[in-house]
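Make up an example, fold above all:
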Amino acid sequence: MSVDPRGLATQWINHLTVERGLSANTLSNYQRDIERYCEWLEASQITDLRAVSTTDVENYVAELRRRGLAASSAGRALVVARGLHRFGVAEGHLDVDVAQDVQPPSTGTHLPDTLTIDEVEHLIEAIPTGEEARAEDLRDRALVEVLYGTGARVSEVLRLCVDDLTDCGGILRFLGKGSKERIVPIGGKALEAVDAYLVRGRPQLSKGKSPALFLNKRGGALSRQSAWAVIKQCAQRAGIEAEISPHTLRHSFATHLLEGGADVRVVQELLGHSSVTTTQIYTHVSAENLRSVWTMAHPRARSRG
């Protein structure tokens, strides 16, 4: 009996929803990737999962890379395809898991994009806060300060409510991946920007609709897409030509802490990484910075022409 890819995909997503209790965001990503896999199978005229070979799955990953998908994204798509085949075997629909030995594409060594401390200063100072500042300006200043001041993910910052900042004592609580809670200090500069926004900016944006700290013009919670747009606009104001995002501020937070002498395990806790290995990529960034400074400054770093 043939196994319809879309039919089994629906069963698997239902299983993940009910039995695994995955977050809505994770399920949405799985749904997107499984849809992409099913579409590729259809385009390849494969209508029966029993007919899929290991080579087919390898060709699927290769096609994603040819389309310009990043190695990390193609790797995640492979994880989803593997999950479907593994589920099919577990449920008795498939005899062999042809996807289990397919290797993800190599991501190579990628160092995260960061800003210098001066660039961060310019980014922040370019946002008006004086009498001429609009409510959106005060919000944007507070958003950038909180993102850089805590190193939190943009999704975590956008989940903050006003009450989270009221009498917080310089400590914020974030609910990260896997519903893991962590506490992160927040500095005086960020708190000053938040206070200015709460007093002079947020009341103009609020329509009584949302308790979220950061609001859009309609009074609802600021979305991730809008936060990205805010950061890009701020970068343009500051004359920063590099493409930056909210995550750039997270990377910069970690790098600047390590360059300032912070212990990598402390930075791990602040970022909410489950493994110190993930955090150690920032030590490579710091090492590159040290190498650059040494090359420029040490008398025997370069041969004399």
